[in-house]
Amino acid sequence: MNGLTSEEIKRYLNRIGIADIQAPTQSYLFELHKAHVKHISWQTIDIFAGRPASIDDKQIIELMLAGRSGYCFHLNGAFSILLRSLGYKVNFHRAGVQPVGTEPRVNGFHLGLTVTLTNESQIEEIWIVDVGLGDMPYEPLPLLAGVYQQGPFIYKVVESGVAPKGWRLEHDPVGSVVGVDYAPAIIKDLEPFKPNHEHYSRSADSPWLNLFILKQRHETGGNEIRGCIWTKREENETVKIEITNKSQWLDVLADQFGEKLVNYTKPERDELWRKVLLKHEEWKLSKALQTTE
User: Fold this and answer.
1) Residues 63, 74 contacting (CB under 8 angstroms)
2) Which of 150, 286, 166 is nearest to 222 (CA)?
3) Rounded distance, CA 114 to CA 228, Å?
4) Which strands form 177-182's sheet, in the order they lie side by side?
5) pTM of this structure
6) How far apart are CA 84 and CA 91, in angstroms?
7) Successive 10-residue mean pLDDT values, the chain, 293 residues
8) Which residues are paired to 70 by β-bridges?
9) CB 149: neighbour CB atoms within 10 A?
């Protein structure tokens, strides 16, 4: 995809609550990043529903313009197209997310982005840009070793121990993952990531096939809904709420995550809720059995 038309740019910006097209500056990059993670959630809805969307350029842009979403390949892929259309220099990198209880890795199951900007002294600066990680980060981070606080979360940028000359973004200890490692090599397009997307979308081993989850970040915290459990993080307070009926579930999806299930008919939304509730009851039963053992 060569880039977005002026009309497509305006529609994309409108989706994330930004009114004006501006020059590709650092301040505008920050505004775009914050708006994107606030208005477009990271989610597994289509995979969970058995209707995964492709990561072809045209498809991922259509997701954003049509009020839909996805996970890292869709979100970072579409955001990169928007940024390039606005005049930013964007690069793709192979990356790997480290969930709790696993080892660091760069396996290409995450799409990493960097943006290169020239500062007032005409020196190039590289920024870590990532709108596809759910609860991290809220703003771009400089590709410089250091500790950075954004709202209630503290992030660290360090040298990667698994990607030579690469970097690592470490999450806050209360975060959903331990960190992300990025390889320095520049990837031309999304083609090398397609086998991994296919695995996530359809493989029986995919972590997302039977997990309904959405994540959304804002300035002072974030939201997550996992099955029927809604977790709200606001500054240093975390509250968990069990959702017990479809009406409440739909309201939370729309109001907190901007997800109105526009690609699903009423019968399909009913079926989606039935499946979510069934998985939730199975989870509660397994927890109860573990407690009694």
Assistant:
1) yes
2) 150
3) 35
4) 141-142, 124-129, 110-118, 89-99, 177-182, 167-170, 153-159, 146-150
5) 0.96
6) 10
7) 92 97 97 98 98 97 97 98 98 97 97 95 95 94 97 95 98 93 98 98 95 96 96 92 96 96 98 97 86 67
8) 42
9) 9
